[in-house]
Design brief:
single chain; two-stranded antiparallel ribbon; 4 strands; 42% helix; YHS_dom; globular; 7 helices; two-stranded antiparallel sheet; YHS domain-containing protein; alpha+beta; disordered N terminus
């Protein structure tokens, strides 16, 4: 398996997506607390968070399969940086850079989400390097 392929299969950059909701901060996950969901591996910082995710994955899984929200709004799959995130109406959105987060996602939240939702229907099954 190539590094690119492995990175695609480890969702949210290996960060605990439940922690964004419960701790209000990104927390690095561990292979010790791994869960498989939608063909990807998700890491969690604790067994409790892994169990919460397993019980309600749709509640905790980030938008756009854990790819950058701003990127999805432009029809691209861009790897995220865990410190650039927001929860809007209970949905976790991750971004790739300070610029993408502040200048696009936060500045035009509704528009970015709307474009991302529309584009995601087209790009979700396409590998990032083919977009």
């Amino acid at each position: 398996m190539s590094i690119t392929s492995a990175m695609r299969q480890l969702s949210a950059g290996g960060y605990d997506v439940v922690a964004y909701h419960t701790a209000g901060a990104p927390m690095k996950g561990s292979a010790e607390h791994a869960v498989s969901y939608q063909g990807a591996t998700w890491y969690f910082s604790s067994a409790e968070n892994a169990a919460m995710f397993e019980a309600e994955p749709a509640k905790f899984a980030p938008a756009y399969g854990g790819w950058c929200s701003a990127g999805a709004s432009k029809g691209k799959k861009v790897p995220i940086k865990p410190e650039f995130w927001a929860i809007v109406d209970g949905q976790l959105y991750l971004n790739s850079s300070e610029g993408a987060h502040k200048n696009l996602f936060l500045a035009k939240t509704e528009e970015t989400i709307s474009k991302g939702e529309s584009n995601w229907k087209v790009i979700f099954a396409t590998p990032a390097d083919e977009l």
